[in-house]
Specification:
Helix content is 0%, strand content 55%. By secondary structure, the chain is mainly beta.
């Protein structure tokens, strides 16, 4: 059974930090690109950051560059998102995603249930 379980969300003041974790099970974690997405109320889900299966390359949405850091531990089947200098506009539900592609357009992906991050004074 595939599971992606996010944790680490909560309420934080502007300028504060949080570290999200996503524990994976039920699939070959090290074969999947891992990403964090977020969805704020009334808005579409957007990509926050992604990391390759080997962890040797990362990609960030422009507004997160320099503030957020994605990392992974393939031995622990876990991906992390370190969020610093948080702003009220970072308030959203943050989702973990696992994606594998192969062949000519084939893909498989999994989603976690999400963890709420609220940035407010």
């Amino acid at each position: 059974q595939v599971q992606l379980v996010e944790s680490g969300g909560g309420l934080v003041q502007p300028g504060g930090s949080l570290r999200l974790s996503c524990a994976a099970s039920g699939f070959t974690f090290s074969s999947y690109v891992m990403s964090w997405y977020r969805q704020a109320p009334g808005k579409e889900r957007e990509l926050v950051a992604a990391i390759t299966s080997a962890g040797d390359s990362t990609n960030y949405a422009e507004s997160m560059k320099g503030r957020f850091t994605i990392s992974r531990d393939n031995a622990q089947n876990t991906v992390y998102l370190q969020m610093n200098s948080l702003k009220p506009e970072d308030t959203a539900v943050y989702y973990c995603n696992a994606l594998k592609t192969w062949g000519w357009g084939s893909q498989r992906d999994y989603w976690g249930q999400g963890t709420q991050v609220t940035v407010s004074s």
